[in-house]
């Protein structure tokens, strides 16, 4: 995935080596960049040997996105309109597959091939990527697989939308019990044993619980309450004792801890005619109930305003970094290990800085004008010009602002001195 080659400086041989390397688990061969109209492309899938893979077409598309990216994913049960919501975020009636059959349309994780250029409220410009996920209750998949898909979507997202029908009741909370399983499938760091939900919460996306075909009046103690209040009331601990109560409270505690930044959006039934609901993607928005359209507008506004580029520490996610992070997580899953957030990000950060270093040394050597007279003043002039071009290339490609980047900046300066000598 990352083409890592040596520069001409022998000092690079003693530089820190990344623990991340192109994974043999993916067997990727890059496809040509996505051409033609924008469309869904497969990002992650489960092959016939029971291994997670990244699709080469998605890898090729993401490698081209060098600017910061924010990722919004929609997850939930099958056949409950996840793809419809994604299409509304795209501003189109079709795109991600919408169908009325009982079989799930989406397998694994799918990505919209064309990022949406967005500007957040604070002025940050970024590329918004939309992810569609397989239904977490797909009948032909195991519980472990569902948890892994769910966990991957959470790990990669800036905003995670959980889509479900109806209100938040005990059955709805039970279905979200995957959250309590995430602590068994993800770690924050390599040492220290299992990570708690609150530790994982430091890296979690904004969580949006989207309630479809919602019909309840939001009233508590004869007072109107907000959807956010409704969510918080549903997540309050249940009073009592016993195993059943403890299990219910474990789910509630996990959701609160894993998703400290959370919101709730109810959407009323879009149409009253049952037959029309089966072909919702074919009906123009102006035919839908005004209350539904208003709720959809509010959701879209929230998503676009609150989404930010995904970031861990000093590293902001770009397309190539998303590829590297995903590959690192999949490699861990395929090897029966637990994906580790900090180690995976640091490995990709180091791989990117290494690649930036190699590119910078190549540019220095090719930019040095050897046609000038071999006198110090002319050599220094050519050296300075080559250094400027080399540093510009390094700064454009390197990621992070921490110790990994500083190490490679130091190696590059050492390379410049030796090259001039």
Describe this structure in words.
- The chain is α/β, with parallel strands linked by helices.
- The chain is 42% helix and 15% strand.
- The chain contains 14 helices and 13 strands.
- Strands 1, 2, 3, 4, 5, 6, 7, 8 and 11 form a 9-stranded mixed β-sheet that branches.
- The chain starts with 39 loop residues before the first strand and ends with a helix.
- Residues 1-34 are annotated as: Disordered.
Low-confidence stretches: 1-31, 98-105
The H-and-E topology, N to C, reads as EEHEHEEEHEHHHEEEHHEHHEEHHHH
The secondary structure category is: alpha/beta
- Strand residue content: 5-15%
What is the subunit organization of this protein? Answer: single chain
For the termini, the CA-CA separation is 35 Å
CA-based shape = elongated
| Largest sheet entry | 9 strands, mixed
Number of strands: 13
Round the Cα radius of gyration to an integer and report it.
24 Å
Helicity, as a percent range: 40-55%
Give the averaged pLDDT, no decimals: 78
Number of helices: 14
Biased composition (Low complexity): 14-33
Biased composition (Basic and acidic residues): 1-11
Pfam family, one: GBP_C
Family: Belongs to the TRAFAC class dynamin-like GTPase superfamily. GB1/RHD3 GTPase family.
């Amino acid at each position: 995935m990352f083409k890592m080659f040596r520069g001409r400086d022998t000092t690079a041989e003693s530089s820190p080596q990344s623990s991340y390397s192109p994974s043999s688990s993916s067997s990727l061969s890059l496809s040509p960049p996505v051409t033609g109209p924008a469309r869904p492309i497969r990002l992650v899938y489960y092959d016939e040997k029971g291994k997670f893979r990244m699709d080469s077409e998605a890898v090729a598309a993401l490698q081209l996105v060098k600017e910061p990216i924010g990722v919004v994913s929609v997850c939930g049960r099958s056949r409950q309109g996840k793809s419809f919501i994604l299409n509304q975020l795209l501003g189109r009636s079709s795109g991600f597959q919408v169908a009325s059959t009982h079989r799930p349309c989406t397998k694994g994780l799918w990505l919209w091939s064309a990022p949406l250029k967005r500007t957040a409220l604070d002025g940050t410009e970024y590329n918004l990527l939309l992810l569609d996920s397989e239904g977490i209750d797909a009948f032909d998949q195991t519980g472990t697989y569902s948890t892994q898909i769910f966990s991957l979507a959470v790990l990669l997202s800036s905003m995670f939308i959980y889509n479900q029908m109806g209100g938040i009741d005990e059955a709805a909370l039970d279905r979200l019990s995957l959250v309590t399983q995430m602590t068994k499938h993800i770690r924050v760091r390599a040492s220290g044993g299992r990570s708690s939900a609150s530790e994982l919460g430091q890296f979690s996306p904004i969580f949006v619980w989207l309630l479809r075909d919602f019909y309840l009046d939001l009233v508590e103690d004869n007072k109107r309450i907000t959807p956010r209040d409704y969510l918080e009331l549903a997540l309050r601990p249940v009073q009592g004792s016993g195993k059943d109560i403890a299990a219910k409270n474990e789910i509630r505690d996990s959701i609160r801890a894993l998703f400290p930044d959370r919101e709730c959006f109810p959407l009323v039934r879009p149409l009253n005619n049952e037959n029309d609901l089966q072909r919702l993607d074919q009906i123009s928005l102006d035919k839908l109930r005004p209350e539904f359209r208003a709720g959809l507008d509010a959701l879209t506004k929230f998503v676009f305003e609150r989404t930010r580029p995904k970031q861990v520490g000093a590293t902001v996610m770009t397309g190539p970094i998303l590829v590297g992070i995903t590959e690192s997580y999949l490699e861990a899953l395929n090897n029966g290990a637990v994906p580790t957030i900090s180690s995976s990000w640091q490995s990709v950060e180091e791989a990117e800085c290494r690649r930036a270093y190699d590119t910078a040394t190549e540019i220095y050597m090719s930019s040095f004008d050897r046609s000038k007279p071999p006198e110090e003043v002319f050599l220094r002039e050519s050296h300075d010009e080559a250094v400027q071009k080399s540093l510009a290339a390094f700064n454009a490609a390197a990621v992070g602002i921490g110790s990994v980047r500083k190490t490679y900046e130091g190696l590059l300066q050492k390379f410049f001195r030796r090259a001039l000598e």
